[in-house]
Amino acid sequence: MMPETTNISNLMNEQRSYPPSAEFTAQANAQPGFYDQDPDEFWEREGRERLSWFTPFSTLKEWNPPYAKWYLGGKINACYNAVDRHVENGLGDKVAYYWEGEPVDDRKTITYADLQREVVKTANGFASLGIGKGTHVGVYMGMVPELVYTMLALTRLGAPFTVVFGGFSADSLSGRLNDMQCTHLITQDGSYRRGKVFDLKATADTAMDAAPSTTTSIVLKRCSNDVVMHEGRDHWWHDVVDGQSDDPASRPCEPMDSEDLMFLMYSSGTTGKPKGVVHSTAGYLAGTSTTHHYIFDIKPDTVYWCAADIGWITGHSYIVFGPLVNATTSVMYEGTPDFPDKDRWWEIIERYKVTVLYCAPTAIRTHMKWGPEYAQKHDLSTLKVIGSVGEPINPEAWVWYRDHIGGGRTPVVDTWWQTENGMVLITPLPGLSTLKPGSASKPFIGIEPAVLDDHGEEIAPGAGAGYLVVKKPWPAMLRGLYNDDARYKDTYWSRFPGVYMAGDGARVDADGDYWLMGRIDDVMNVSGHRLSTIEIESALVDHPDVAEAAVTARADALTGQAVVAFVTLKGGRDGSPEKLAELRDHVGKVIGAIAKPANIVFTPELPKTRSGKIMRRLLRDVAEHRPLGDTTTLADPTVVSEIADRAAVGKDE
Ligand code: PRX
Description:
This protein is α/β, with parallel strands linked by helices. It has 19 helices and 31 strands.
């Protein structure tokens, strides 16, 4: 079956295009001829010149499908590349981060020399509690500088980690701690969100109770909310870190093999259990820093701001490792865009004279809804490049972004990639690409995507939509799924043998530009966050009153997609507003607030085929208020019209 496409396919937009300005091209990092380079020579050179090695690599890559290795034989350390060498090279006084806390006036300027001191102290503190090469560490924090210190200290020590987004529930956290068998957890008392304190430590306590391998925690005091510290298990960050030596010689960077595991990032898939996406060291560093340099046109005086959360892959690659390897000055912001008012982002851009902004379409649409007057209050004329990531950007939002934020002058780089990719794969280059609103433009150098039909045949440019695949390995690609080879092969490599299946629908136009069309599997994308239908269904049926649940997505003007759940209660009971609120909270408790359904439709029965399979396609039609498709294979066709009637009442909040 061809992918169902839910997103942009407005052919009219192919007519609208924005060629690069001669002025931008003249100074751009990627000059004409960029795409003509030999990809292997390009990645070889980037690997040698952009990174510093303890032992240089001997072989560029090895490809034993579906496993790739890059920069083989090298010894390298991520923290050394991100911090120490910059200080050694005289960049100690350069600002690494302008950090803004959510509370107004809570600010910190962190130079590369400061960063080195803090990271060394943190690494020494962690080592004092037994963290060393090969220790597995969970991280559950907000957007504080100590989160960056933590990730860098762990790479300095050679300890693989997994950062769990601070909005995830205790169950989600313990699931990850157990899967990775983490012995340590780094967390904080609370984190700020829209003026409120979110009690991270209490959630971490519940998670640790369910994660027997995690026997030690280090707790940063951020909000001074009341927490219970368990004697012998929990340690305050300031007790562990503050008195430590900040001399880099006291804790040298651990030489790691190019292919050593650096971190896992758990991501929702098509089953109930999140996948531990494996990222190794050298290819990840090369891929993220190289793409960062060319796509955002990073210069020594760039002030770069990626407004994502470090709890997701975007933050790992484009707030922490990519920018730091490039010795970039970044902005990092702890809170929400509307605290204390809706112009907080624009105030930040004005204050630090930000030149590059990178954020998600949901954020852009939110600002669009609030109105351009908030941006107009501030001077945004320093912006040179603005970027988008995480979900398809609708042309209207793209044009609004360029006009109202980019002053009608900046290139917009719509970057397509995934947790598994580690780095951007399809993107414009700001000095070279003719931009089309809604298109992610062309593959980055060395990336070979294709669009396949049901039979695995390539669909020619201009000839329609199909499955997006990538035919060749790239440096930052996942090295597998943690402890689950079978799932790795099955998820990405079985539908079309020998090529990586991304799980997205796409088409290529006659100019060779890619148009991404959303997920084609049971994965939803809400506000740029990936959610699994099955995971939410499992969370719902985990509630004692729920007999059955089916989850699907509908289009949403703000969040891209929204979660719609169809629920049958036990004993044929009817739903109620109270039950609806209870079930939403339950999903929040099991997975995290981001997974709460926007709508719940209570129904006495779910539409099933005669063999008992839930007809999700029909539910999707119901959720989208579309005319219903073929119902003849249903065991009881009347069920659907009844559900449609109930859904039509509308339960939006
Ligand atoms: O569906 C695609 C969408 O986000 C998915 C990857 O989600 P995640 O692993 O959470 O990573 C998000 C940040 C890298 C993809 O399968 N996606 C991401 N970027 C775009 C996009 N869809 C369209 N256009 C994009 N620029």
